[in-house]
Amino acid sequence: MLFLSEMPGCFFRLRPLVVQAPFGESSRKNWRANTVLEEVQESINWDPKRWVRNNANVPFFPPDLQKKVLVFPKASNNAAVFLNAEVQQPLTSVTVCLRYYTLLTRAYGLFSYATKQGDNDLLLYKLLPNQYRLYVGGSSVTFTLPEKPASRPRWEHICMSWDSATGLVELWVNGYPLPRMGLKKGYSINPEASIVLGQDQNQGFLGWVFDINTSFQGEMTDVYMWDRVLSADEVNLVWNDHSVSNSLINWSSLDYEIRNYVMIMPSLISA
Ligand SMILES: [Ca+2]
């Protein structure tokens, strides 16, 4: 379990190391394991290589986040989780799935994929409790769900996909698809991205910046991304917590970096 506390002017950085799996080949060629807790001075121009350690004495943490959740305990303009994804070529189709739990009623960013083509090259954004806004290439479509008062707060699972050939955007909420909409037909999403959970990245003077008023506060888990549109059966598998192969981002072997006040905790929901 990782305990990360807030410190003004500093952020804690988790740098996953790539090591060979001790039990033979895993589904990925390299087993991303062993995160190292580093306290470093906040710097815009940090060099990732500086923080890689290959020391047997460093703390060891299990790489598998199954049954774990990310807790974003409070609204902020600096807390986020950065993800590394092995995107090799421009994305002409994509699916992003995640599960989250919040009591927020304002807008917030869930998954932000910013590139030099724009801060909203791919963005999952919640506008209202019953309204999702999905961006591709800076354009957006808004899905408005029928308002049904929930009897109790609950986790929500979403899968969003987009396909360049048709321009069609799918949004699945708790395993149910909404009527498809279209945008950016023929577009390609840049493979070089800054990928962030829990914030909407915006273009600032010196780089990407966050806005406390669109920050996520709550819990998040089961984050996945594929460079294809998942079939209905596959979305159903993901919703039911089964694995679907060949993902670019995989919750079970997440390559991530935590900035500021985000905690990794056991899920409070029993299996
Ligand atoms: Ca943005």
From TrEMBL:
Gene3D superfamilies the UniProt entry points to: 2.60.120.200
InterPro entries assigned: ConA-like_dom_sf, Pentaxin_CS, Pentraxin_domain, PTX_dom
Entry's Gene Ontology BP terms: acute-phase response; innate immune response
Limits of the Pentraxin (PTX) domain: 66-270
Keywords from the named record: Acute phase, Calcium, Disulfide bond, Metal-binding, Secreted, Signal
GO CC annotation: extracellular space
Cofactor (UniProt): Ca(2+)
GO molecular-function terms, A-Z: complement component C1q complex binding; metal ion binding
Subcellular location: Secreted
Top-level lineage group: Eukaryota
Pfam families named in the record: Pentaxin
Annotated family: Belongs to the pentraxin family.
Name recorded for this polypeptide: C-reactive protein
